[in-house]
User: Which sequence fits this backbone?
């Protein structure tokens, strides 16, 4: 499996893109602003979008993706998410007010987009690739994802704060190679991180102490304007774990 980082920032500007990861060439993990850098031909190849949660920085490109290529395809783009996330997208995005409901056009029998609900812990296999939603702890219903090629695994935390159930799952993965975990705020904003159910560097360091299996650790979702400060604090507080900042266009193979 090959994961390309299309976006991994907590905001936009100066080339930063919000969360979107391209798995091989046909699966998106979240659909933030980074999707917009793909060519039309690349967009045509996307068959599935796996959504961690409903927030705009993770879903904003879904309407544009479907509108751009949906009518040129012979099958719908399938959006996979928690049932509550799907309901939010139906109510507040694909509601004919903010955007058309592409799950019923051009017709209900042959729509441009289809929703499929999943549950935490449910493994879906696509072309030999296993994708399993894992627990997240955020202000809206949310998950992370465990991606398993057989030869190796990657875990993406999604947006989360302190999350013991995640580590129970991660520590059972025998072929774990990469862990991508969020840190949205610097340490002086710890109270905001707690209220918004994100992590700051000191909280990240405490969470990483729960990791019992080896992995390369990458940090995502840093806020523009605080990237250097937050990474400095991460490198200080979590030095024992050697965390690195995830980068746009980075490729991880496993």
Assistant:
């Amino acid at each position: 499996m090959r994961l390309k980082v299309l976006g991994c920032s907590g905001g936009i500007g100066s080339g930063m893109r919000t969360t979107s990861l391209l798995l091989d060439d046909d699966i998106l993990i979240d659909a933030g602003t980074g999707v917009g850098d793909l060519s039309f031909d690349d967009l045509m190849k996307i068959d599935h979008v796996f959504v961690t949660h409903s927030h705009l920085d993770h879903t904003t490109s879904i309407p544009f993706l479907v509108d751009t290529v949906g009518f040129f395809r012979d099958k719908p783009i399938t959006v996979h998410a928690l049932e509550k996330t799907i309901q939010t997208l139906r109510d507040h995005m694909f509601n004919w007010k903010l955007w058309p409901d592409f799950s019923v056009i051009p017709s209900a029998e042959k729509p441009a987009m289809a929703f499929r609900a999943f549950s935490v812990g449910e493994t879906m296999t696509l072309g030999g690739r296993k994708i399993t939603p894992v627990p997240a702890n955020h202000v809206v219903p949310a998950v992370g994802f465990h991606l398993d090629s057989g030869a190796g695994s990657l875990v993406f935390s999604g947006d989360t704060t302190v999350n013991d159930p995640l580590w129970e799952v991660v520590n059972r993965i025998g072929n774990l190679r990469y862990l991508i975990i969020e840190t949205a705020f610097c340490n002086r904003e710890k109270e905001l991180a707690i209220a918004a159910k994100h992590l700051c560097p000191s909280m990240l360091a405490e969470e990483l102490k729960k990791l019992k299996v080896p992995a390369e650790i990458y940090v995502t979702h840093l806020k523009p304007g605080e990237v250097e400060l937050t990474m400095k604090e991460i490198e200080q507080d979590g030095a024992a774990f050697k965390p690195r900042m995830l980068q746009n266009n980075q490729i991880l193979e496993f």
About this structure: Helices lie at 40-44, 56-59, 62-69, 83-92, 164-170, 190-196, 201-208, 227-237. The mean pLDDT is 98.
